[in-house]
Amino acid sequence: MSEAVTLPRPGKNRGLAIATLLVLEAALVISWSAGFVGIRFAIDHAPIFLILLWRSLVSGLLLLPFALTLGSALRWRDVLAQMAFGALAMSGYLAGFALAIGFGVPTGLVALIADMLPLAVALLSWPVLGQALSARQWLGSCLGLVGVLVASGWSLSIGDVPFWAYGLPVLGMLSLALATLLQKRSPAGAMPVHQSLCIQCLSAAAIFALFAWHEGGVLPSLDPGFIGGILWLVFVATFGAWSLYYVALRKSSPARVTAVLYLSPPVTMIWAWLMFGEPLSWAMAVGLVISLAGIVLVTRSPGVSPGEAR
User: Does residue 10 carry a pLDDT above 60?
Assistant: First the structure.
């Protein structure tokens, strides 16, 4: 009598896939929030634009051999497009939230504002892509804005922070959203991730070099805190966060991945409280919950999926 062959049960495989996805998403949230924490740590050891310069330059140079040898041959048309995306997305986004942190805006609040990318993508989809918002998307966008106002209303009284500094992460977030939509329309958006990230990092480094030179110089500091901060930003915040983001997109829906990123603000707030003693408040927590509710409405609405507009 032959032995019965035991086939793997679909339910068991599905459970394993879900567990794997949850672990992947948890790692994504942690690595995404690491960028804000890394900048907050590094600014105690070097000027902001020097940090951004060497974060981008080291990341780009480490990726360069892979970009030149792996994947299809680079075409100048696509390279120039990726350089423009890097200037708008990486330079604008990183400079916006880094300068805000440097001026004393609470790190958790900066993360809350800068991570509102789905709302910005939804709002800019009509003028850029010609796709109008649904009533649910408008409601979600308004809720997200209310959440930021609730959270920032309390933090405005913390320390001596210029009022206009709270607009810096907003500008950075809008810059990334605009670059996301423009890249969605461009044929260069199909370039492999390691190639596009390399070009964008190097183009951002060129821009940051000009500001760093104006700020005092472009030579790296030999301070252990500076070196440690750069390594953290390169391997955890750049390679870790972005690679996990794209892997998650292949295993799950873009709407879910984008929504998961909005768990990074509370993680950032807790890190900033533990590492730097930045205060927590009920207002910031309430604002976060309101913003998350708005984001859920936007990402679950039919039409544009923010995560697809990379």
Answer: no
